[in-house]
Each structure stands twice: as C-alpha cells, then as structure tokens.
Amino acid sequence: YVLMGLSHAEQLVIEDEYWAAIERSTGDHIASFWAHYLVMVGGREVATTASGRGVYDVFRTHFPRLDPVALRTLAEQWRSFAQLYATLLDPEGEPDPEIRARLHYLNTFGRGMYPLVMALYARHRAGEIERNDLLSVLDDLQSLLLRRDVVSVGSDRLVARLVRASREGIDALAAAISRQTPSDDRVRVALKHSPLPHPEYVLSRLADVDPAQDDLVIDHVFPPAPSDDWTGGDGRRWKDYSEDEQNSHRALAATLGNLALLEEPLAAQVFDADFPDKRTVYGRSSMTVTQPLASIETWGTAAISGRSAELAQQVMTLWRRRGPLVIDDDGLTPILDAIPRRGWPRGWEREFSYVEYVGEHWEVPDIKYLFNRIFKRLWADRRDAVIAYCSRRGGPVYNERAWNGDWDSLDDDHHLYMGWDSRYMMAAVQGVLEEAGLAPEVFVKYSYIGQIM
Q1: Strand arrangement of the beta sheet that strand 407-411 belongs to
Q2: Which long-range contacts (CB under 8 A, 24 or more apart) does 38-43 make?
Q3: Which of 83, 121, 312, 386 has the largest CB neighbor count within 10 A?
Q4: How does 82-96 read in b/e, with b if 16+ C-beta sit within 10 Å?
Q5: Would the pTM count as exceeding 0.70?
Q6: Cα dist from 306 to 255, 257, 299, 313, 318, whole Å
Q7: Residue 212 — very low, low, confident or very high, per pLDDT cuts 50/70/90?
Q8: Buried/exposed code over 145-172 (b: 16+ C-beta within 10 A; e: otherwise)
Q9: Over the stretch 156-211, which tens digit does the pLDDT of each residue have?
C-alpha cells in the first residue's frame, strides 16, 4: 500500500532507506510495532487479526493518500519510532540508568503499554517532557498494571484512553492512570488471599535487587505439595493436619506471605525442607525481604497471613497509587474503545449490560439499539454535529428513503438507515459522538456474553 503509485526507483529508496531500517529495529515484532504506532497516533484501539487486516484498515484511514514527498516525511517518522520501539523491546540501549531500569520493569507486564510509553519517550527525547515526569509516569504504569493483576482485573483495551489523556498533559495522564488503579484496601485483601502475580519482580523490587538476576529464585516457605512428614515447627507432621487445615495451607501457598526470594544455591538446600531447617538458611540469605523469616519460630496460616500484611504495606508504598480515592472498577469501557464486530456475531443482541450517556443510564442491550438511540438523541440535541458527520461520511442520515430496506424516521424529511452491519454502526456511533464532542462522556458496560464474543 505504501509503495503504490511510486516509480520503481522511488520504491527502492523507500525500501532501502526506511523499510529495511524499520525491520532491523523491530525484528519479529514489526506487526506489533505498527499496531502500537497506530494506537499512539490515533488514540484508538486497533483490532489485530491473524491476517493483519485490522492494522491495514486503520493505516489506510490515517494515511489515505501518500504522495512521494509526504511519504518520505512520514517514513522518517516511522523509522524514528521504530528505533524507539527497539529500545522498549531491549532497554539496554537507553543511556539513562533510571529510565532503563523502569523500561525493564515495565516489560514484566508485556507490551500492552507500548503505544503510550513510545509517545512519552519520544516527547522526552525531544525535550517536551521532563525526565522526572517520565520517571513518575513509568512508576505509575507499573503500579497500575501490578495492582490490576493482583486483583485479577484485566488491562486489555486500556492503553488508548491513556494515550488520549496524555495529550491533555502529564497531570491529566496521572489522573487517568489513578482512576484505573485499584485502591490500597482492595489490593491488600487480594495480596492476603490470592496468588501473587510476577513474584520474582515483586520480591526483587522489595529486596531492592535487579529482578533480572539469574541466580535468584522463588522458594515457597510452605511447599505446595509437602511430604507427609513436613512440619512447620510446631511438633506436628503434615499427615497429622486436619483436612480443613491442609486446605487452608494450600490456599495460601502462592500468596505473598508464603514466598521467599533466595539465591539459587540456598534455594537448592531448602527445597521441600521442613520449616525449622529453612529458617537457618533464610538467615544466611543476603535478601533483606527474606532474612526476617529466620526469626519466626513456627510456620502456618497465621504466620503466612501476618507476613502478607507486613509485606503488603511495603507494596502499597513502592507501587503507590496517586490521586483521589476513586476507582473505576465497574468495568466501563469508553465508547471510543468499544470493540467493532464483523457482521452480526452470535450473541450480538445481548452484547451490552447498559450504556452511560453523559451522566444518564441507558438500558441498551446491543449496537443496533445504541446506533438508533444515539442518532435520535443527537438529532434532537446536536443536529449540527449529525449533519456535519453525515455530510462528510455520506450517511447514515438521508433526506429520503432512496432504496428499500430497514429505515427509521428522525422527522418528516430526514431518515436514518438501519440496514448497516454492526461494524459500520459502531464506527458511526463513535464518529458522530466525536463530532459532537461527547465521546469522552459515553461508556458501555459489556455483558458476560459481550466479554466472550
């Protein structure tokens, strides 16, 4: 698509000077680079498919015509961002040690935040964002992702709204991150009762050591599958525990309080050992997060819960949550991040639980109903926006019913065509709300069916 309309000589220049450089920078991740770049540019989620069609369609929308001069300017930009992307993939290329460390930390959670980080990183390189502001945002993103993982809340389709917030400034971005970050109380409860995600990263950070160290491993103080003779030091053997006691121990085996960070040689000595034997070895560890275990006499559910509470407070401090105590844990999705569907997939009639429209609660089960209601409401409240959108896009409101099909009337002289597929309807809803300036105030709540469609 990029090379269409160019002479053979012009194509060779673009391929040799730009495309080859982009491939070298991104390697096997070139497809994700383009998807993340388009999220960064458009501030909208990009549907990725095995065929790559979603990325291609969005690319064409952003760059509908590429003459040779414009293409060269854009290609220089793409090459520059690909080089930044390479640093995100392997932060060892970043000269600033604190930024480098934070980029490594962020990679613990995958590449989902790359569109936002790439934009901020580029602005920092250009002198538009202070170093301390960049460091603060990178810390906030770690807090956001870790806390959401701890409480088992997904972070999919989150980055685009943060990209949009970042365009309003660092303070607006910090507020948007805070809104999506689970509260201390919620995280504290989850740390006590749920398996700890990313345990090497968490315990290494608590111990103030590099999580990438190869010689550090996680030891379960109470083994997940103890032998019949295992003891926590209270004189009883595992086989003597009641069924309820055994179940309660197993339930806490992967929680924060039962995990110890150890040097690999020491971990080999205590694998599946009784707690009294482990205590001595824990005392020889140089890990500050592990050494206090040596002073505990017996190990059981009370000790695990107590240590979880103690370490949870350190987690709250290290992965802090900035901003007011407001949490967006209701699962609302901004309308601009709503998922476009192809055709009419099974279950489409029950995709939504409800819609929040500019502070109003709408019982809207599907996109067809939402499409109709949005256009009727805006026709009454913001007719200028509907007319402007339809004039530019060629519909979906027309002066007459020019063909057979499913129509609805907005008034005697204007008609809304209802025969589109769901993808068109979602795009039209998003587009007309953007035209009216109301998109930031409209959210959808997906039903269980909508989440698995």
Answers
A1: 397-398, 414-417, 407-411
A2: 38/62, 39/115, 39/159, 39/160, 39/163, 40/81, 40/115, 40/116, 40/118, 40/119, 40/163, 42/160, 43/160, 43/163, 43/164, 43/167, 43/336
A3: 386
A4: bbbbbbbbebeebee
A5: yes
A6: 12, 7, 11, 11, 19
A7: confident
A8: bbbbbbbebebeebbbbbbbbbeeebee
A9: 889 999 999 999 999 999 999 998 898 888 899 899 999 999 999 999 999 999 98
User: Could you give the CA distance from residue 429 to residue 287 in angstroms, rounded to a whole number?
Assistant: 55
- Helices 68-89 and 30-42 cross at an angle (nearest 10°) of 110
Q: Name the CA dihedral angle for 222, 224, 228, 230, rounded to a multiple of 10 degrees.
A: -20
Q: Which residues, including other chains, have CB under 8 Å from residue 171's CB and lie 6 or more apart?
A: none
Residue type, 236: R
User: How far apart (Å, rounded) are the C-alpha atoms in residues 339 and 428?
Assistant: 13
Q: Which residue has the tokens 């450089």?
A: 21
Task: Kindly give, in sequence order, each residue whose CB lies less than 8 Å from that of residue 344, ignoring residues fewer than 6 positions away.
Answer: 421, 422
Give the other-Cβ count within 10 Å of 326's Cβ: 11
- For residues 366-380, one letter each, b for 16 or more C-beta atoms within 10 angstroms of the residue's C-beta and e for the rest, the string is bbbbbbbebbebbbe
Long-range contacts of the stretch 212-216 (C-beta < 8 A, 24+): 212/104, 215/263, 215/264, 215/265, 216/261, 216/262, 216/263, 216/264, 216/287
- Cα separation, 227 vs 224, whole angstroms: 10
Give the tens place of pLDDT for each residue, 406-429.
999 999 999 999 999 999 999 999
Model pLDDT, residue 278:
95
Distance CA 244, CA 147 (A): 30
Contact status, residue 1 vs residue 9, Cβ threshold 8 Å: no
Only one residue has tokens 């029950």, namely 350
Phi-psi category of 157—alpha, beta or left, where left has phi over 0 and alpha has psi -120 to 50?
left
